[in-house]
Inverse folding.
């Protein structure tokens, strides 16, 4: 599945950028650098590992739907966390560019893959 391979490449590249250059995104947005860049690097590692999972799932998205489901949930919960951070003035609105490309643009493709699985088996838990 091309969508999952594209998601895999994106996540691995984004994760690598954050791991090796943790201040780049903050500098680009004119934000204060984090006090603990290791935490941001850990997020990069998690995103990169998701990329490996997406690459595997791309071979057979229906068979590997749990990877797609976990990715989809992360892409839904990430923006919820961003909204909370925005409402408490922890992040500026400009940080939302990160949410658009890391999460929101993937909602429909991941949803459609999960819908195919559900339509075939009528369950996610078998």
């Amino acid at each position: 599945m091309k969508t999952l391979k594209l998601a895999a490449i994106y996540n691995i590249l984004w994760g690598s950028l954050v791991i090796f250059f943790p201040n780049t995104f903050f500098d680009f947005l004119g934000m204060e650098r984090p006090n603990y860049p290791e935490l941001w690097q850990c997020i990069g590692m998690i995103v990169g590992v998701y990329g490996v999972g997406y690459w595997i799932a791309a071979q057979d998205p229906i068979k590997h739907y749990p990877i797609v489901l976990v990715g989809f949930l992360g892409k839904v919960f990430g923006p919820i966390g961003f909204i909370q951070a925005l409402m408490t003035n922890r992040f500026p609105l400009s940080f939302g560019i990160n949410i658009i490309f890391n999460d929101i643009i993937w909602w429909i493709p991941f949803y459609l893959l999960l819908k195919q699985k559900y339509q075939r088996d009528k369950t996610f838990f078998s």
Notes: The chain has a mean pLDDT of 94. The helical segments are 2-20, 24-29, 37-57, 65-87, 96-102, 107-121.
